[in-house]
Amino acid sequence: MLRRASTARNFPVLEKVAGGRRNAERGQDKRAIGVVLLEWSLMVAGYYILYLSVNGIVTMMDPVKKDRGAGVQTKEALGKKADRSEIARLDLSPYERIIANEVLDAEQLEGGFDTIGGLEQQKREIFELAVLPLKRPDLFNKRGKLLGSPKGILFYGAPGTGKTMLAKAIARESGAAFINLRMSTLTNKYFGESNKLVSAVFSLANKLAPTIIFIDEIESFLRVRGRGDDAPWISLKAEFMTLWDGILTESAVPIMVLGASNRPYDLDPAILRRLPRQFEIPLPDPKQRAEILRLLLKEEHVDYESVKLGALAAETEGYSGSDLKELCRAAVMMPVRDVMYLPAGGSLTALDVDGLQAEHLRQVTMEDLRNAMKRVKPTGHAAQDYERRESAHAEHTAHISPAFMNTALSLLLQSLVQGHVPQVPGAAHGQAGGDGRSNGRSV
């Protein structure tokens, strides 16, 4: 009995020991599970970091990914227009989507031939030569291969004469898609990518036909080839001309390349051959300048009792259409300047800009236009005048005779040897600075 009681008393101790062992085993199991979960978490995190790294490297190595996304947005925006809804349904390559960034719908181009002052003869010939065949290719193709638009037209002349406006007017009047091709779009640091972009220009133009490919300042891209040209640049030009020849042989495809240049003599002869029709766009004569001024001022608040467009046109010799636009812009600013008159020494922040109303502005007068002429000069006039003044100043200040230079150098060497500064002959006669007297002190 006594032994049984003793054993019974020891059971709680044994139970506690067994429970402790079970708790320890459970703790070990939990720690093991925690270690496994930690290892799995680290492995998953490592794989995710590896995925991000590889994806980032691939993205950086893809030279057209960013531009492709912008091209998709451009395609969708163009596709919303009713008359060019087929663009959204086109199957475009990644490179064609990049070129799609350069596409302007014809409805986005402001104004047609009626908004261009002067150039009546050029406008009529260009309309017959380019607009009609692009607008009705079916009609012209039925009459043979010769009765169609040329595949290349060159506009050349002084800056600001309306070359770009003519190109946009052709697209506007014909309803053609307008690819405003910039050379920065074609250049790519990755080898071979530029050639693919050039190919995409013509393949996209074929899908959007009728299409105008416009290249402003074309001589900067297709100038005369020389031995100093880089191999990639030569390859790019060759690719462009080869594909251009392709559209030349396909007369039924309504695609036209328009070039504008201020320096046509810098163009490669092979390019000039592909631009068979060339139009000089000269500076406007007095009659054309009057017409340009009329178009520019027709929506402005002008006092036509004082403004004589004929007289103003006669006084603006040498002004281009762009110069006349800036002149009119400066003139219509004169009434604003009168209302916002600021006395000498006044603070610009004190002007009551918010209180200015359009009805407070007076009409533009002839005096305003003449004052604007003092501010706006013909293109390059101010720069040329500054260059003349600077050249005259440099020639006046730097005029030193060779004999005087030889004497001055000889005496300088002598002074270094003898240790004193001698008198320079002729200095007293204004050929050198100073009063012509030696100070006689040693150096």
TrEMBL record:
Which is one Pfam family of this protein?
A: AAA_lid_3
Entry keyword rRNA processing: no
Which portions of the sequence form the region Disordered? 424-443
Identification of the protein by name: AAA+ ATPase domain-containing protein
Q: What InterPro entries would the database entry show?
A: AAA+_ATPase (IPR003593), AAA_lid_3 (IPR041569), ATPase_AAA_core (IPR003959), ATPase_AAA_CS (IPR003960), Mito_OM_Translocase_MSP1 (IPR051701), P-loop_NTPase (IPR027417)
Q: Name one GO molecular function term.
A: ATP hydrolysis activity
Location comes to: Mitochondrion outer membrane
Which cellular components does GO assign to this protein?
mitochondrial outer membrane
Which keywords has UniProt assigned to this entry? Answer: ATP-binding, Membrane, Mitochondrion, Mitochondrion outer membrane, Nucleotide-binding, Transmembrane, Transmembrane helix
Output the superkingdom of the source species.
Eukaryota
Family per UniProt? Belongs to the AAA ATPase family.
Question: PROSITE patterns annotated for this entry?
Answer: AAA (PS00674)
Q: What membrane topology does the UniProt entry give? A: Single-pass membrane protein
Annotated AAA+ ATPase domain residues: 149-285
Which residue windows are transmembrane per the record?
Answer: 32-51
Tell me where it mainly resides: mitochondrion
